Amino acid sequence: xxxxxxxxxxxxxxxxxxxxxxxxxxxxxxxxxxxxxxxxxxxxxxxxxxxxxxxxxxxxxxxxxxxxxxxxxxxxxxxxxxxxxxxxxxxxxxxxxxxxxxxxxxxxxxxxxxxxxxxxxxxxxxxxxxxxxxxxxxxxxxx
Length: 143
Fold this sequence. Notes:
27% helix; Activator of Hsp90 ATPase-like protein
């Protein structure tokens, strides 16, 4: 199954890659309660479904997060629209099931809604994140 939402946010891919990191996820998505640990592109989070290992990957137009131990292989990407004039960011979430129970679907819809709300509040988030962190480089082969 897949879930999509857009957010009004005038970020480029480089800005998404700079600000959307494991350690900052609770600022961007209310469904992610806290980061338990993080080191580079790996960590552990506590979210609405419980505690999970998380991996981060820099993509051509944004960032991908995966929960490798999740029974549903949950992953989501946050990418900038190729048309920089649009001011839109796309959040795309997938699980490895064709069907899921209604409660789980509802929780996934809440997760997406929380991402949309958090991204659209980007100005407030940037004030909380004011730092000089280097932007990760996205290699030409994206991996």
